[in-house]
């Protein structure tokens, strides 16, 4: 599986909740030189920006649950965050 959010969540649930694969070792096959799949952080003029990712709404309980299960942290952008969409 790949090293994006889909591959990471699949690996987490397979190794933690599948009765036949509990504790199994999985291999990651990623075609790019980095992990993250469609998620990426870019640096422009000394500032870091999230690129190609999605906005996770606080009421998206599936996304919030996946943040909580493996013990990930949410970083609040604060009030001075700008949102832009470019193609």
Give the DSSP E fraction (strand runs of 2 or more residues): 5-15%
Tally the beta strands: 2
In total, how many domains does the architecture comprise?
Answer: 1
What is the makeup of the main sheet? Answer: 2 strands, antiparallel
Distance between the termini: 28 Å
| Biggest β-sheet: strands ordered side by side in the sheet | 1-2
Give me the strand/helix succession.
Answer: HEEH
Please state the oligomeric state of the protein chains shown. single chain
Low-pLDDT segments: none
Quick check: average pLDDT? 75
Helix content: 10-25%
Shape: flat
Radius of gyration: 16 Å
Number of helices: 2
What structural category do the secondary elements indicate?
alpha+beta
InterPro entries: FAD/NAD-bd_sf (IPR036188), Prenylcysteine_Oxase1 (IPR017046)
GO molecular function, one term: prenylcysteine oxidase activity
Protein name: Amine oxidase domain-containing protein
Pfam families: NAD_binding_8
Characterise this structure:
The protein has 87 residues and is of the alpha+beta class. It has one domain. 24% of the residues lie in helices and 11% in strands. The protein is built from 2 helices and 2 strands. It has a two-stranded antiparallel ribbon. A hairpin with a 2-residue loop joins strand 1 and strand 2. It is flat.
Q: Could you provide a short overview of the structure?
A:
This protein has 2 helices and 2 strands; from the N terminus they run H-E-E-H.
Present the secondary structure layout.
Layout: H1 5-17, E1 40-44, E2 47-51, H2 61-68
Antiparallel strand pairs: 1-2
GO biological process, one term: prenylated protein catabolic process
GO molecular function, one term: prenylcysteine oxidase activity
Organism: Panicum virgatum (Blackwell switchgrass)
């Amino acid at each position: 599986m790949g090293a994006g959010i889909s591959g990471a969540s699949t690996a987490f649930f397979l190794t933690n909740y599948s009765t036949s694969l509990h504790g199994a070792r999985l291999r990651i096959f990623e075609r790019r030189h980095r992990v993250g799949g469609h998620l990426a952080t870019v640096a422009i003029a000394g500032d870091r920006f999230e690129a190609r990712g999605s906005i996770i709404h606080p009421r998206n309980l599936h996304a919030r649950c996946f943040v909580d299960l493996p013990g990930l942290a949410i970083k609040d952008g604060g009030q001075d965050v700008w949102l832009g969409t470019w193609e």
